[in-house]
Amino acid sequence: MRVIVDAFGGDNAPSEMVKGALSALLRDSELNVLFVGKEKETLDAIKEAVGDSEIKCIDGLVTFGGAKSAASGRMTVANADEVIGCDESPTQAVRTKKNSSIVVGLNMLKNDPENVAFVSAGSTGAILTGAYLIVKRIKGISRPAMAPLLPTLKGGQVILCDCGANADCKAEHLVHFAVMADKYMTVMNGIKNPRIGLLSNGSEEEKGNELTKEAHALLKNTEGINFVGNIEARDIISGDVDIVVCDGFSGNIALKASEGMANGIMKLLKDGIMNGGLKGKLGALFIKDVLRNIKHTMDYNENGGAMFIGVEKVVVKAHGSSKASAIANAVIQAKELAKKDVIGKIKESLGGVTFNEA
Length: 358
Known about the structure:
By secondary structure, the protein is α/β, with parallel strands linked by helices. The protein has 11 helices and 16 strands. Helix 3 crosses helix 5 (124-135) and helix 4 (101-111) packs parallel to helix 5. The radius of gyration is 21 Å and the shape is globular.
C-alpha cells in the first residue's frame, strides 16, 4: 500500500519527513512511500537517512544497500518545485502553486488508485483547502473536519473533532462530525457504540452558546449514535467519553491549551529536579521511568497525525514541528486508515444515521 508523503511540509522538512518515512518502511513490510517535493534535496535527505551515498534513483524509484536495505525499492520520489508556506493564503496558494508538494501530492492521491493516503506536516489551511477542492468531500457530509487522537487518563484514546478545520460551524456540521468520528473509533479502535460528548462550558444540558445548545438538541435526537451529553474541557482526556465534538475554533484552543499545559508541567518537574540539589537528582533517578512514560502518554504525536475526515481519500495532517518518530507514526496510521477502509465505512454509516429537529 503506497502512502504519499509531503517531503517539504513542516518545520523540519525534508530531513525529518524522510527519516520518519524510512522508519515506517522498516516497521511495516506492507508499506510503500511516494515522496513529493524538490527531487534533489529529497534524494540528499534519503542518502543521509540510509547512510548510503551510492543510492540509485531510476524513474523515481530509489534503491540502496546497507543496514536499511529492507526499505530499498519501496521509496519513490516525484518532483514538485514549489512549497506552500504557513503564512500564505491557503486558497490562493492552492490555486496558483500548481507545482507545490501539497497540490501535486493531493492530485496524485486523487488520480491514482494505488496511492491510498497523503501525509503532510505542512500548512493546515492549504492541506484542508486542497483536500476539499482536489480530493473532494464525501457526498452527504457538509464539512470535513480535523480529528486527532488524544491519550486519556484511563489508558485509552479520545478523538477531538473538529480541532481546527472549521472555525465557524452550524449545528448540523457538529452532527456530521459526530457521525464520522463514531465510525472512526469503531473501525480503528474497535470501540462499539462509542460515547460522544459535546464540548461546552458546563455539563448541564442548558449550558453553552447558541451553537452548542442547538447542536445538543440535534445530537440528542440523532439515531444511531451514543450521545452522552455535554463535556467540559477539563474532562476531555478523562476517559469518560470516546469522542469530543466541537467547532474548530473551540477545539483548536482546547488542543493547544492541553499541549501547553502538558509541556508546562514537564518543564516544572524538570526545573524542580534540577533546582532540588542532590536530593532532587537522586529522587529523579528513582522515578525517571515513570516520568518518561508520562511524557510519552501525554504526547498526542505518539498516536500519529490528525485525519481530515469527510474527504474521499485518507489525508493525515502531522504537527508542523514533527520529528521523525511522529512522522513514522502518522505514515503508518494513514496506511492503516486506508487498509481498514475508514472512508468506505463512513460512507456506509451515513445511510444509517438520521437526526430530527428538536
